[in-house]
């Protein structure tokens, strides 16, 4: 809801501006502040609704950062848009019985409105089907090709002779060699999750004609990433090893150490951007190539719309480029697109803050199983209801930031959402602001009381100092992309405000002031103490509005509405000031910032999730069909097989290859060894009960398989972060489960 129209015609007061920026921040950033910022968020596919995992992964953190930069009055442009090419679009069109154009028009509009409804404040939300994008992508390809930075290769690919077309992996189905599911796609089995290639499928057929495809030669253009390994190793693993998130550096290191390969820039498809070469008839640019160029074309379109020059944002080294993405996009934004930008003469990203995945109620979000919470569903069930509105938008933003998967996968639960809103937003933040306004109207006639400096005590000074210190802490965290911690600091400041108010007890002093036996002098003294408490609390409310604005913009605007001040007060430079609200100024009557989430609402969502979820594709068929492998029975010397589990249970286990860097015996524990294991993205300490089978020296350098998402456990006072997989033979001897040959640490096991 836009509150500004309600403020028109109101005589606004003058308030203090230009509060100096914290010296700590000045020392760190002012000498090196970029001239401008270009912030991007990953382009979502316009082939369906997007869920809150997408929102938490890229768009919300980007929006928080951009709102902070705007409050700092920095030159910033925030671009995004719909990714409308690739096989996902025509496949969705086939499912819905319509055209690819109809699909992108439908979902582009829905996704764009979803983001607006959830207060994601793009400067432009563009689309890759636009003429500007097609022109920009063709120019990009042509420049690289003319400069000799691309190479051509002839390969064999599957071809449908009936449909007269080459087949993308998703247009081929067959039997999964891993689980026997008979409708696995050519890139992945949706039942067991195994990544596949069409060559691995048993009895492959074309989804277009139903006939078996044949192999046919075709020529394509490739980006030889192997030429750029030295540059990437220096730029990522050295220049950015300390300022990029560990998950980004770790994944890039794994790819680079494994040896980069040439990647196809073109493909045989009739949906996409036509390759601008006469010999490339029937070929389009691969979606991974044209999609990130969408950031450039969106910037161009923004510049056209606003009469600006777009080029400095992509060519001037004084521009800070930041890509916000999910971890499935790391390689594209930290390795491939930077190579493209470098070859094209553009600036490189300063940072690529990537989040891990957000799970839902104990399981991974899955569109195919309908185990998800779409943005549209939350908007319909909460925001658009009679008791919804902007406060419910902020409620979602708050919880998603509180559980943001910044360093590891996290989980959304409906009970967690309820607890965060009721116990923090309502009980701490909202409660403090409401109490301050209620007591102001009750104890100081609805006006900002004066501050009597001569009566300030230790608690008063501590509270005022805390307001100034909080600004510095929050600013440092936001500059470092630590949004979860930054939001905590804002709520913690409100918590301290509640504690301060409770300790000062202005309502008790009011009773003493009005007591029958109080002298005029005593009553006046009590009122001055009340004035000081309420003055500090109201100035804290004004500061909270500034500090919460990047996270909960609707609450911030509701607060300035209640305080009857203009939006300029939300400029970041005003944070830390104790002169934001003028003495004697009348403020509005209190209104609740947030409402509680009721048990009935939560149960409704849990029931909806469970009732609408679908089984794993092929699960029902698999339970009735004869097993592809004969069942294993108990045999002498073998333990009985444990009870059957579903694939989803197994999928929760994160298995990765690690390399043992060091090993030592644990004191007073004959069976335990303390291991240091390189996981590719970090080094972990793991305590393993293998000391009776191996000496420390003989296992250093060995590769092992590690359960990486096992909860930490203390053993002999040492915290163990993972478990090494071992096999035990009939004689009781242990053997490491490990790859046949050395591979990159951190490689997944499935």
How would you describe what is shown here?
Mean pLDDT is 90; it is low at 1-30 and 620-640. Strands 17, 18, 19, 20, 23 and 26 form a 6-stranded antiparallel beta sheet that branches. Strand 21 and strand 22 form a beta hairpin. The radius of gyration is 30 Å and the shape is globular. The protein is of the alpha+beta class and 750 residues long. Helix 14 runs antiparallel to helix 15 (483-504), helix 15 packs antiparallel against helix 17 and helix 16 runs antiparallel to helix 17 (520-548).
Supply database-style keywords.
750 residues, alpha+beta, six-stranded antiparallel sheet
Shape: globular
Helix percent reads: 40-55%
Q: Which oligomeric form is depicted?
A: single chain
Low-confidence stretches: 1-30, 620-640
Beta-strand portion reads: 15-25%
The helix-and-strand class reads alpha+beta
Task: Find the count of extended strands (DSSP E, 2+ residues).
Answer: 26
Instruction: Return Rg in Å.
Output: 30 Å
Total helices: the number is 22
- Indicate the mean pLDDT: 90
| Largest sheet descriptor | 6 strands, antiparallel
Distance, first to last CA: 47 Å
Topology summary:
Elements: H1 23-29, E1 36-41, H2 52-71, E2 76-82, H3 88-96, H4 100-117, E3 124-127, H5 131-146, E4 151-160, E5 165-166, E6 172-175, E7 184-185, E8 202-206, E9 214-224, H6 229-239, H7 246-257, E10 262-264, E11 266-268, E12 283-285, H8 287-306, H9 312-315, E13 319-326, H10 330-344, E14 354-355, E15 358-360, H11 375-383, H12 390-402, E16 410-412, H13 414-443, H14 458-479, H15 483-504, H16 506-513, H17 520-548, H18 553-563, H19 599-612, H20 619-624, H21 647-651, E17 655-665, E18 673-678, E19 683-688, H22 696-699, E20 703-707, E21 713-715, E22 718-720, E23 723-724, E24 726-728, E25 734-736, E26 748-749
Parallel strand pairs: 1-2, 1-13, 2-3, 13-14, 15-16
Antiparallel strand pairs: 4-5, 4-9, 6-7, 6-8, 9-10, 11-12, 17-18, 17-20, 17-26, 18-19, 20-23, 21-22, 24-25
């Amino acid at each position: 809801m836009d509150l500004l129209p309600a403020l028109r015609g109101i005589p606004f007061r003058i308030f203090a501006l230009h509060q100096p920026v914290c010296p700590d921040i000045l020392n760190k950033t002012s000498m090196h502040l970029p001239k401008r910022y270009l912030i991007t968020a990953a382009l979502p596919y316009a082939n369906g609704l997007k869920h809150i995992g997408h929102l938490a992964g890229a768009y919300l953190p980007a929006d928080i950062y951009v709102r902070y930069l705007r409050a700092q009055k920095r030159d910033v442009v925030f671009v995004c848009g719909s990714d409308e090419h690739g096989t996902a679009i025509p496949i969705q069109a086939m499912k819905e019985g319509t055209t690819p154009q109809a699909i992108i028009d439908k979902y582009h509009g829905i996704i764009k409105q979803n983001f607006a409804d959830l207060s994601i404040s793009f400067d432009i939300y563009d689309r890759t089907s636009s003429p500007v994008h097609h022109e920009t992508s063709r120019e990009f390809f042509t420049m690289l090709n003319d400069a000799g930075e691309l190479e051509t290769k002839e390969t064999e690919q599957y071809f449908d002779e009936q449909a007269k077309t080459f087949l993308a992996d998703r247009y081929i189905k067959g039997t999964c060699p891993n689980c026997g599911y008979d409708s696995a796609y050519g890139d992945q089995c949706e039942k067991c999750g195994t990544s596949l290639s069409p060559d691995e499928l048993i009895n492959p057929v074309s989804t277009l004609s139903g006939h078996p495809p044949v192999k046919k030669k075709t020529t394509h253009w490739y980006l030889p990433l192997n030429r750029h390994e030295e540059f990437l190793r220096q730029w990522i693993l050295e220049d950015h090893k300390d300022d990029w998130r560990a998950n980004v550096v770790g994944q890039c290191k794994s790819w680079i150490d494994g040896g980069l390969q040439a990647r196809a820039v073109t493909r045989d498809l009739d949906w996409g951007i036509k390759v601008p070469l006469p010999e490339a008839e029937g070929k389009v640019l691969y979606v991974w190539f044209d999609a990130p160029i969408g950031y450039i074309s969106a910037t161009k379109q923004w510049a056209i719309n606003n009469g600006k020059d777009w080029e400095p944002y992509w060519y001037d080294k004084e521009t800070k480029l930041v890509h916000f993405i999910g971890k499935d996009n790391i390689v594209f934004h930290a390795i491939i697109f930077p190579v493209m930008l470098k070859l094209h003469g553009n600036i490189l990203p300063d940072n690529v803050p990537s989040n891990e995945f957000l799970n839902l109620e104990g399981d991974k979000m899955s569109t195919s199983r309908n185990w998800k919470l779409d943005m549209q569903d939350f908007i319909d069930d909460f925001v658009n209801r009679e008791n919804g509105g902007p406060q419910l938008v902020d409620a979602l933003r708050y919880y998603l930031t509180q559980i943001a998967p910044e360093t590891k996968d996290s989980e959304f639960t409906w009970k967690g959402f309820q607890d965060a809103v009721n116990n923090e937003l309502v009980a701490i933040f909202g409660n403090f602001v409401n109490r301050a306004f209620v007591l102001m109207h009750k104890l100081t006639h609805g006006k900002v009381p004066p501050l009597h400096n001569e009566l300030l005590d230790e608690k008063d000074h501590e509270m005022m100092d805390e307001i100034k210190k909080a600004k510095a802490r929050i600013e440092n965290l936001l500059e470092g992309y630590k949004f979860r911690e930054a939001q905590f600091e804002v709520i913690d400041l409100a918590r301290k405000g509640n504690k301060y108010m409770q300790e000062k007890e202005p309502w008790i002093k009011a009773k003493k002031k009005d007591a029958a036996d109080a002298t005029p002098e005593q009553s006046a003294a009590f009122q001055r103490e009340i004035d000081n408490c309420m003055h500090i609390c109201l100035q804290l409310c004004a500061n909270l509005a500034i500090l919460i604005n990047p996270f909960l913009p609707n609450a911030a605007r509701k607060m300035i509405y209640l305080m009857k001040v203009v939006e300029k007060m939300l400029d970041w430079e005003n944070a830390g000031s104790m002169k934001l609200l003028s003495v004697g100024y009348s403020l509005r009557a209190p209104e609740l910032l947030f409402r509680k989430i009721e048990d009935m609402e939560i149960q409704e969502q849990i029931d909806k999730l469970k009732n609408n979820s679908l089984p794993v594709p092929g699960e029902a068929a698999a339970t009735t069909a004869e097993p592809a492998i004969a069942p294993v029975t108990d045999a002498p010397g073998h333990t009985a097989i444990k009870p059957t589990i579903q694939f989803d249970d197994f999928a929760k286990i994160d298995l990765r290859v690690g390399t043992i860097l060091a090993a030592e015996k644990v004191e007073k524990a004959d069976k335990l060894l303390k291991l240091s294991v390189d996981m590719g993205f970090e080094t972990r300490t793991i305590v393993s009960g293998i000391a009776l089978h191996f000496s420390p020296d003989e296992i250093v350098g060995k590769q092992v398989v590690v359960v990486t998402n096992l909860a930490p456990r203390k053993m002999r006072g040492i915290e163990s972060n993972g478990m090494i997989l071992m096999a035990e033979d009939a004689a009781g001897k242990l053997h490491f489960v490990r790859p046949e040959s050395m591979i990159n640490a951190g490689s997944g096991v499935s």
